[in-house]
Amino acid sequence: MMHMTFYWSKKVTLLIDSWKTDSWVSYALTLLACFLVSAFYQYLENRRIRLKAISFETPSTTPQIQIPLLQPKLHGDKAKLGVKFAGAVLFAVNSAIGYLLMLAVMSFNGGVFVVIVVGLAIGYFFFRNEGEGPSLVVDSSCACS
């Protein structure tokens, strides 16, 4: 039976019928998985934002120290197309993870809900809190971003 209100129990079915918890150990491992996936969601969103920022950078006239692994120079249409494709793939993967997190919350288990919210907050703190200016606006189809 599917719950339609929040409940607190170690017995939960998450996403698929075969992912059922019936002991405290399996429930704790499920909560750990939810926490890690939600923090990873924020990490991937950070990577997508940085990729988007790199693709829209305009070359400046003042010489700067270039770090080749962190700030690749984009030359030509093929490089821009590659960055655009990589951004689309990151968006698709991140959207899929976001929707799976939403479906996990829709299990209405209180522990799953709390762990996912805490994982998103911790992931935001470590991965997305740095260097975001007020002028940076990123489109996202997921409500949990």
Automatic annotation (TrEMBL):
Topology versus the membrane: Multi-pass membrane protein
Chief place of localization: membrane
Keyword DNA-binding: no
Keyword set includes Ubl conjugation: no
Pfam family, one: Ctr
InterPro entries (UniProt xref): Cop_transporter
An example Gene Ontology CC term for this record: plasma membrane
Gene Ontology MF: a single term: copper ion transmembrane transporter activity
Residues that span the membrane, as ranges: 24-44, 81-102, 108-127
Keywords in alphabetical order: Copper, Copper transport, Ion transport, Membrane, Transmembrane, Transmembrane helix, Transport
Compartments (UniProt record): Membrane
Family stated for the protein in its record: Belongs to the copper transporter (Ctr) (TC 1.A.56) family. SLC31A subfamily.
Entry protein name: Copper transport protein
